[in-house]
Specification:
Length: 584
């Protein structure tokens, strides 16, 4: 056991054990730092595991929490408020995953450590913690994002001393984390390379590409050449560099090389492992980042044991160091790790904050209210209406926009449609869909939809988003439901230029009440504006790969092509108010 030292944090003394070596079953050791109070007694322990580096997490003791758009916000300081954990009389154990930081071993590929499941290492780590003299044998876990995903991996292995977990902002289906509707998202690059507000992984020379470990140099050369046939990839300098020099960014190389869903992602998909989890699980996620809301709901519906789902309010990015949700987390662990009956399990399983009304809706299932899926149609003069268009395309001519590549322009073209001001509070909770009839003049493009709540003075808040790469338009009809489409993303089918196709975008889960006087505004583009009221709250790299070719889009919304949104109305059914249609 390494010698302990006592440090001063705020007004309290904290005992720290630095650089402890935690043995894995194959002989590899992981590095850990341990923090607890000065009284010599065993306590419940909260374990945090990631590849981001335990030394980075220690900044929680000295750095005031930062919110975006602060330039000091660092997305990788996610292990929690160390001083608060100690003050609540827990032991905080922060470890480096295999192959990262000060730990031994190799980390090959995403969620795969040298051929060893990260859950297996987590099992061994947790059981080691439970045997230490400063732990009373009751172990939970702590941390958001990657740390949250590690909790699911650990729980699926069923270590005997892991009594409960509290997951905030985790990432689960890693394909859906990186390719939204088939469109590559750059935020995972930031977390690995250390760009745009992220320190990135605590890289060592033992973090390796699974692709490079699996295929011969000749095979890799052929696969890289094939990937560069995508003009979106070929137009982006960072990706060209990565594909030619993969040794610098092995984990990101693997993700870029696997643009379709399939076995590479599914074998380490935490959702697939969740059926093994039988301990209590609390899932917390804030609105504004739809793919993570989606993942939390999918995980919640998969779990069989005691569980909670808490969907919080906007904005989408928590502080770094992470301090939010600690009150709720300690209440959860007080019940499950300390045996104090505080009534937390007497409360409804699902809690949803509704934007607009600022009401919290509770229930035992998601969605928390009955949903009336209702179409809202795109109409001429950029209107949205409950009534479909009666004229044909020769009279209700299509809307459209031309987008030049961002290599030759800074302007992102956006077309929008809006309702008239709502006359009554109108609540929507759930997923949605956008059925768009579009003609494009290229074999592929992106379709990016953003839905806003616009107040009378013009102030807007993002409500939900939808993404679809046109070549990924194929639907799984068996898994697709009204208002909830499912795309398998297992193959790309080029679009035939000049042909009108129906594209169905999945609108990520949301909860919002449109107040009287407010409008719903729906925007469509094939790239994203780099800065606006929403994106300013996200790290600089939180945007999607732009389209690398010039594309003309025609959006048909006539009697033969009923382009529409299908929305989850839950209160004030549309029939009870005037049709949300009117002059802009």
């Amino acid at each position: 056991m390494a010698d302990a030292q006592t440090i001063r944090a705020g007004l309290q003394d904290i005992v720290v054990h630095k650089d402890l070596r935690v043995p894995m079953r194959d002989g590899v050791t992981l590095a850990a730092d341990v923090y607890h109070g000065t009284e010599d007694k065993p306590r419940p322990a909260l374990v945090a595991l990631s590849p981001y580096g335990k030394e980075l997490q220690a900044l929680a003791l000295t750095t005031p929490p930062q919110r975006r758009p602060s330039p000091m916000w660092d997305g990788c300081i996610e292990a929690g408020d160390i001083a608060r954990v100690v003050a609540e009389d827990y032991v905080h154990v922060i470890g480096d995953l295999r192959g990262s930081g000060d730990s031994e071993g190799e980390h090959i590929g995403n969620y795969n450590a040298g051929g060893v499941s990260l859950g297996q290492d987590a099992y061994d780590f947790i059981e080691w913690v439970a045997e230490q003299p400063w732990c009373d044998g009751n172990v939970g876990m702590i941390g958001i994002s990657y740390f949250g995903s590690m909790q699911v991996f650990a729980a699926a292995e069923r270590p005997p001393h892991l009594k409960a977990i509290f997951v905030s902002g985790g990432h689960y289906d890693f394909y859906e984390t990186t390719y939204h509707g088939g469109i590559m998202w750059f935020m995972p690059r930031a977390a690995r390379e250390g760009r745009g507000g992220d320190s990135g992984w605590a890289f060592t020379d033992r973090v390796k590409s699974r692709m490079l470990e699996t295929y011969s140099p000749e095979e890799i050369k052929g696969r890289v050449a094939k990937r560069l046939e995508d003009p979106d990839v070929a137009a982006w300098p960072n990706l060209v560099h990565l594909l030619h020099y993969p040794k610098n960014h092995e984990a990101w190389f693997d993700i870029v090389m696997n643009e379709l869903d399939g076995e590479w992602y599914e074998e380490r998909n935490p959702i697939n492992l969740a059926a093994n989890i039988d301990i209590p699980v609390y899932l917390q996620i804030d609105q504004g980042r739809g793919w993570t809301v989606d993942g939390h709901i999918e995980l919640f519906e998969t779990l069989k044991g005691p569980k909670k789902l808490d969907i919080g309010s906007y904005p989408p990015m928590q502080s770094r160091p992470w301090i939010e949700e600690h009150d709720t987390m300690f209440r959860w662990y007080e019940y499950w790790l300390k045996g104090i009956d505080n009534g937390v399990m007497d409360e409804p399983a699902v809690s949803v904050f509704v934007e607009g009304s600022r009401e919290v809706v509770t229930a035992d299932t998601w969605p928390p209210r009955a949903v009336d899926y209702t179409p809202v149609y795109l109409r001429p003069r950029r209107k949205l209406s409950l009534e479909p268009e009666l004229m044909g395309a020769e009279h209700a001519a299509p809307d459209g926009f031309y987008q030049a590549p961002l290599t030759v322009t800074d302007k992102v073209e956006i077309i929008d449609w809006s309702t008239a001001p709502f006359e009554e509070p109108t609540e929507m909770i759930g997923t949605g869909a956008a059925h768009l009839f579009v003609e494009i003049d290229q074999p592929d493009t992106n379709l990016i939809m953003r839905v806003w709540d616009e107040a009378p003075g013009g102030k807007r808040q993002l409500i939900t988003t939808g993404f679809l790469k046109a070549s990924h338009r194929e639907l799984d009809e068996e898994r697709t439901n009204e208002g909830n489409p499912y795309h398998p993303h297992t193959r790309a089918v080029p679009v035939e230029p000049g042909v009108i196709e129906e594209y169905v975008l999945r609108l990520y889960p949301f909860a919002a009440t449109f107040l009287p006087g407010h409008r719903m505004v729906v925007e469509l583009s094939n790239d994203e504006p780099l800065t606006d009221a929403h994106n300013a709250l996200l790290p600089p790299d939180a945007f999607h790969l732009p389209v690398g070719r010039p594309v003309t889009h025609k959006i048909y919304r006539d009697a033969a092509h009923p382009s529409r949104l299908v929305l989850p109305f839950t209160r004030k059914a549309p029939a009870s108010q005037a049709s949300p249609e009117g002059e802009r």
